[in-house]
Amino acid sequence: MKVLVAVKRVIDYNVKVRVKADQSDVDLANVKMALNPFCEIAVEEAVRLKEKGIASEVVVVSIGPKTVQEQLRTALALGADRAIHVETDDMPDSLAVAKLLQAVVANEQPQLVILGKQAIDSDNNQTGQMLGALTGMPQGTFASKVSVEEGVVKVTREVDGGLQTVQLQLPAIVTTDLRLNEPRYASLPNIMKAKKKPLDVTTPADLGVTVARTVKVLKVEAPAERSAGVKVADVAELVEKLKNEAKVL
Amino acid sequence: MSILVIAEHDNARLNAATLKTIAAATQIGGDITVLVAGHQCQAVVTEAAQVAQVNKVLHADHAAYEHFLAENLSELVVALGAGYQHILAPATTTGKNFMPRVAALLDVAQISDIIAVESADTFKRPIYAGNAIATVQSSDPVKVITVRSTAFDPVVATGGNASVEVISEVKETAQAQFVGEELAQSERPDLTAARVVISGGRGMQNGENFQMLERIADKLGAAVGASRAAVDAGFVPNDMQVGQTGKIVAPELYIAVGISGAIQHLAGMKDSKVIVAINKDEEAPIFQVADYGLVADLFEVLPELEQQL
């Protein structure tokens, strides 16, 4: 069974972004970039499926400028077999990304496509579901447990009230939530090996997809700041202030 | 203009997030139709029809919709969606699951998690864990939108008498099937709807110690939450997580106990009206957003707090 994993290069999750002075966007100059944490979990899950003998090949794909090859190499170092880079300097939106992935799915014919549930930059939480709709595949989003059985995958999903389990016919889409697994660290020998693994470059034009945006960003601004309040000395003072000053008790 | 709002419910009661989504629809302006898709969900239809701002309720009742599977629900919404300029749903795990499928089937973008309506085509939404707010404008013929419910005050659930249209259309795929669910049983209010939330972080040290928070929660009628660190450490289940990738809450009072205040946690609670932080580390970033900070050992503070409430 072939598994396709789509990954995104994003700002490192430890970095606090700043908005540019002209309010055109956030400032990403000289900011540390990394593999989106949910995408890392997606790669890990696919590699584990391979280690269990369920997956035969793990293919990782990313869309963006040349720099995304760094993240593809990271995914290869974590255990993916080969990589596909869809090169574009445009910033495609989720629908365009889903269309590009649809074309990759048509070429690769994976039985399972694993994606992160959301990227920590745009916080959209859309691409996996859109890919599901475009390819006609069923989806198990926000997965905390994935088990592949004969022709189906059972996915336990993190929902607002607790957990929900669905059974999906393969081929299917899975998007990862935090508790699905704990990704490994890439070892030095594996990082070296990853440099020699195949990485194919293609373009939206090769895939027959036009990347057009219908949603325009007019402005990006910093949120209203909360200022630090006061320190209280003890529990008695805290309760008194909550009762009489804040009036919330 | 006409707006379709997809109701969130459990087949018995309308979820409060729906009333907040209707509030967002009211700000866009236009005739509001609410779709109640579920199984044996007549009570929800009756509730939705009583909301004054609602003109019409569509009632699709079939076992295929009982568990709100995205595959079935998205096909239904697309089949009914013709003629609407806006399709809205709450940004809950249900809305987040099926709405992007609706958008893709309609070949339009989705605008996720809006926190403000600027005009019928322009909205504000948080990005980068709420560290930036983007104002976005859509030129799509249909705007598919999920609504962050903490950003809107609910409309009143009474005063209306909307007409009800029964939808016989059944969209059912064999590709996805519901197997089961384990819903957390709790006497306490829902995290996202509670007036008071008390959350614990890594400082709680283990899951048993969360009972100290539960006892205080019971006195305050509060919900109990947790930071991602506490969930990652296995103290408590993920459905308690407050943060960028967990639940977004904005209660009147938020009490953070043993939580350092990582960016992604602040993203989930910084719109709370009053924030209290209890942490023994004076330098913890949580104090920068707290209205009241208490630098102390939580294991001494919590029993005392319980006693004084």
From TrEMBL, chain A:
InterPro entries registered for this protein in UniProt: ET-Flavoprotein_bsu_CS, ETF_a/b_N, ETF_b, ETF_beta_N, Rossmann-like_a/b/a_fold
Domain Electron transfer flavoprotein alpha/beta-subunit N-terminal positions: 23-211
MF GO annotations: electron transfer activity
Keywords noted in UniProt: Electron transport, Transport
Domain of life: Bacteria
GO process annotations (BP): carboxylic acid catabolic process
Cofactor annotation: AMP
Cited function: The electron transfer flavoprotein serves as a specific electron acceptor for other dehydrogenases. It transfers the electrons to the main respiratory chain via ETF-ubiquinone oxidoreductase (ETF dehydrogenase).
Family of the protein in this entry: Belongs to the ETF beta-subunit/FixA family.
Subunit and partners: Heterodimer of an alpha and a beta subunit.
Name of the protein in its database record: Electron transfer flavoprotein subunit beta
UniProt source species: Pseudidiomarina indica
From TrEMBL, chain B:
Species annotation: Pseudidiomarina indica
Cofactor: FAD
Function: The electron transfer flavoprotein serves as a specific electron acceptor for other dehydrogenases. It transfers the electrons to the main respiratory chain via ETF-ubiquinone oxidoreductase (ETF dehydrogenase).
Domain Electron transfer flavoprotein alpha/beta-subunit N-terminal: 3-182
Residue positions binding FAD: 202, 227-228, 241-245, 258-265, 279
Name of the molecule in the record: Electron transfer flavoprotein subunit alpha
Record's cofactor remark: Binds 1 FAD per dimer.
Electron transport among keywords: yes
A Pfam match: ETF_alpha
The protein's assembly and partners: Heterodimer of an alpha and a beta subunit.
SMART domains attached to this UniProt entry: ETF (SM00893)
Similarity field: Belongs to the ETF alpha-subunit/FixB family.
Ranges in a coiled coil: none
Top-level lineage group: Bacteria
CDD domains: ETF_alpha
Key words, A-Z: Electron transport, FAD, Flavoprotein, Transport
GO molecular function: electron transfer activity; flavin adenine dinucleotide binding
PANTHER family given in the database record: ELECTRON TRANSFER FLAVOPROTEIN ALPHA, ELECTRON TRANSFER FLAVOPROTEIN SUBUNIT ALPHA, MITOCHONDRIAL
GO biological process: fatty acid beta-oxidation using acyl-CoA dehydrogenase
